[in-house]
Amino acid sequence: MTTALSEEIRAWLAANAPGRDEVPAPGTPEFVAFAQAFLGRVYDAGFSGISWPVEYGGRGLGQPEEKAFWSEAAAYDLPLGAVFGIGLGMCGPIVRELGTEEQKQRYLRPLLQGREVWCQLFSEPAAGSDLAALRTRAVSDGDDFVITGQKVWTTGAHYCDFGILLARTDPDVPKHRGLTMFIVPMREQGVTVRPLRDMTGASDFNEVFFDGLRVPASAVVGGVGGGWNAARTLLVLERLAVSAGLGVDNAAEGPLSFGGLAGRVRARGLLDSPIVADQLVDLYLAARAADLTDEKLAQEIDAGIDPGSRGSIGKLLKARLNCVAADLAVDLLGDADLDEDLRHDILQSRKLAIGGGTDEIQLTIIGERVLGLPREPQADLAVPFRDLPAN
Ligand SMILES: Cc1cc2nc3c(=O)[nH]c(=O)nc-3n(C[C@H](O)[C@H](O)[C@H](O)COP(=O)(O)OP(=O)(O)OC[C@H]3O[C@@H](n4cnc5c(N)ncnc54)[C@H](O)[C@@H]3O)c2cc1C
C-alpha cells in the first residue's frame, strides 16, 4: 500500500510542486497565502491528513502512509511545514484526540484544507521548561472565560486564525492541577500580537498579549482543570511529529542533510582526508539512527502501541543531528564557503534543541519515564499555586 501511495504522491508532486522561484519569500503574507492555497490543492488530491479519520476530512490510513507524503515532499522546497507544522502536528491532533465532537466537526477539515492556520500559546516569560508555572489567567464568568496574560515565542501568531492556549483557571490548587486548555480566536479584540526578531533576521516568533479576551466554555479542550494532561498529550504528539519529520519541509535534501553536506565537502576536494571522511561517517550514522528511530515509532503507532515518552528519544536525536551537522559545516567548510542557504540553516540549527522542550528536558523525560530512573526532586508539587514565589 505504502509503495503504491508513495508512487502516487511522487507523481502528483512532480506535476504540482511549485518551483523554488514560484514560492514567495518566507515570512511574507504572500508566502502564507501561497502555502494555504497549496495545502488546499494537496487536500483536493487526497494527501492532506492521510492518517486522519475520514469523517473529519482525512483519508483514514496509517502512520506509514502519512509519513510517505512528508518523505516525498522533503525532496521539494514546499512552504507547508513553516505555516502548518504546528497546526497539523500539534493543534489538530490534540483537537482530534481530546476535543468534543462539535470541535472536531468545526475545526479539523478547514485545517487540513489550509483554510485556517493555528499556533501554540504555551510559553510565557517565566514559564518555558517549567511550563506549569504559567500565569495567564482564564477566569470563569457566566458561560464564558475571560483570558488575561502574556505568551511569548508564539510561532506564526501574526498570521494565525486560532491558537491552542494553556491558562490557569484555579490558582488555589498546586500548579499542575489548576490549568485548562482552550481554543482561542487570534483575530479578536483583546488579542495583541507583537513580532520578535530572531538571529536570522526573521520574525517568525511573537509576543501575544491577552487583555480580557472572552471565550465560551465550549472552547475548553480536555475539561476544566485537565490542562496539564492535555498539554502533556500535545507535547508527546509534538515530539512524535518532530521525530517523524511530519510537517517539516525539505529536510532530506537541505544544506545540512548528510547528502547536502557531503556534496559540498566533495566539491571542495576534502573527501580524501580520512579525518573528514570519519566525521561524515559519524554524521551518516547519527542520521540513520534518527531515521530508524522514527521508523520504529511509526510502526509502533500503526500497530496500536503508544510510544508515549519514547517520542522524546526521536526528538532528541533529530535536534542533536541538526547541531552536529551545523558544527561540521562550520568546521569543514569555513566562513568563505557558507552561502546564504547554509548560513541560514546553521543559524536555525539550535531551534529544534529548544522548541518543544529543550534537550535537557528531553533527557529528564527519557530518564524518568522511559528508563524509570528516580524522579528529580520537586518541592512545589503540593503547594497551592498562589503561594509559590513569582518567577
Ligand atoms: C524555534 C522555536 C519555536 C518555538 N515556538 C513556540 C510556540 O509556537 N509556542 C510556544 O508556546 N513556545 C514556543 N517556543 C518556546 C519553547 O517551548 C521554549 O523556549 C522552551 O520550552 C524553553 O523554555 P525557555 O525558553 O523559557 O527556557 P528556560 O526554561 O528558561 O531554560 C533555559 C535553560 O535552562 C535549562 N533548564 C531549565 N530547566 C531545567 C531543568 N529542570 N533541568 C535541566 N536544565 C534545565 C534549559 O534546558 C535551557 O538550557 C519556541 C521555541 C523555539 C526555539
TrEMBL record:
Residue stretches spanning the membrane: none
Keyword RNA-binding tagged: no
UniProt keyword Signal, yes or no: no
InterPro entries recorded: Acyl-CoA_Oxase/DH_mid-dom, Acyl-CoA_Oxase/DH_mid-dom_sf, AcylCo_DH-like_C, AcylCo_DH/oxidase_C, AcylCoA_DH/ox_N, AcylCoA_DH/ox_N_sf, AcylCoA_DH/oxidase_NM_dom_sf, Mycobact_Acyl-CoA_DH
Cofactor: FAD
Keywords: FAD, Flavoprotein, Oxidoreductase
Location of the Acyl-CoA dehydrogenase/oxidase N-terminal domain: 33-114
Domain Acyl-CoA oxidase/dehydrogenase middle: from-to ranges: 119-211
Entries under Gene3D superfamilies matching the protein: Acyl-CoA dehydrogenase/oxidase, N-terminal domain, Butyryl-CoA Dehydrogenase, subunit A, domain 2, Butyryl-CoA Dehydrogenase, subunit A, domain 3
SUPFAM superfamilies: Acyl-CoA dehydrogenase C-terminal domain-like, Acyl-CoA dehydrogenase NM domain-like
Acyl-CoA dehydrogenase/oxidase C-terminal domain ranges (all copies): 225-371
Family: Belongs to the acyl-CoA dehydrogenase family.
Record-given protein name: Acyl-CoA dehydrogenase
High-level lineage: Bacteria, Bacillati, Actinomycetota, Actinomycetes, Mycobacteriales
